[in-house]
Amino acid sequence: MRVNRRTGVLVAGAALTALTLSACSGSSNGDGGGSGGGSESAAEVEVFTWWAAGSEKAGLDALVAVFDEQHPDIEFVNGAVAGGAGSAAKDLLQSRLQASDPPDTFQAHAGLELLDYINAGQLQDVSPLYDEFDLREAFPADLVERLTHEGQIYSIPSNIHRANVLWANPAVLEEHGLDPQASYDSLDDWFADLDVLQEAGVTPLSVATAWTQVHLLETILLADLGPDAYNGLWDGTTDWEGAEVTAALEDFERAMSYTNGDRDGLDWPEATQLVIDGNAAFNVMGDWAVAAFEEQGKVFGTDFTAAPVPGTDGVFDFLADSFTLPVGAPHEGGSHAWLETVASLEGQTAFNAAKGSIPARTDADPADFSEYQRTAIESFAQDTIVSSLAHGAATPVATLNAVTDATSKFTSGASDLSTFQSELATATAAD
């Protein structure tokens, strides 16, 4: 049954099913032709996301306000699905796509997360919109390259997030004789301070459920391997079973030894809250966490700090939320209008100011954003960019799922480091 509620939020529990629909890609024009747009192609647009609460919903609301100004004759239909940090939305989406019942557009992480949809023939090429909206000039060239698959582009990013961020509570550090403004050159320097905290009975590093542990893993790999060898994990030029990766996994094992015992029962907001409340000193999380601090009145640089994960200074571990044009979108004109707003300077400014991320566009005014966001804008412009593992940019979904399963086994004690490394090599062999 098609969801068509203007402001409703769904809670989905659909079982994961294979993507088997095979369809011909239609045009991406805005007149309802191409792939099934009807005579009322632009009357409405159902936008399918997992932005149902917190700063994510605030960002969506801000984007909708711009959309309503730019396209007042098109009704926005909120297809947000709550639950599971996006997993419930992805499950329901796959069921709908398999049933040939797509929304008009859906949120997905830009990059190789889209590959399954592309291979199933479920997405239209939106490259013509990049030309129509002048996005090849507005977006950084290396970002456009990362979004391109076999000469085509299948989504338009609404934002850029940075994954390799170390959040800290300076009051906790100062209380235990540590420099609250310390800049760590390496993981070993950081681990030395974590030892001090652990000996004092403080939780040094908060993490949460499996995906946050994979998030920590990717930043440790990046810190130890450097950007070139880290990229090689995904293009086959770095040996997953080599000594360098073994050393990085040993560092990941050590990092996990500093974490909270209740981690598997938490999600990222609870892990971040431990730092906000002073019950943990550090947390490695993407920069969506800045909104959690700021919503509670915490001041950047005073109540909390943010810096690249030790060993990753000068590298921007990138991910992006993006929007697609599905094959068979019922209101393709509405899809076109929504993508225009997502791509626009006004839309990206409003959305990212509320969500804590930064615009994909290079012409946004840094003065419109918070102090932390201004540092991220500067870093994205000058740092080496790599793709996030945990958030869909570096690998297809099946690979990430296999990596997550291997990581969960290891961190729960169900496998040793040698087995973990072998399972990671197997998981990524098909990339």
Automatic annotation (TrEMBL):
Segment forming the signal sequence: 1-23
Keywords in alphabetical order: Signal, Transport
Pfam families, sorted: SBP_bac_1
Similarity section: Belongs to the bacterial solute-binding protein 1 family.
Protein's recorded name: ABC transporter substrate-binding protein
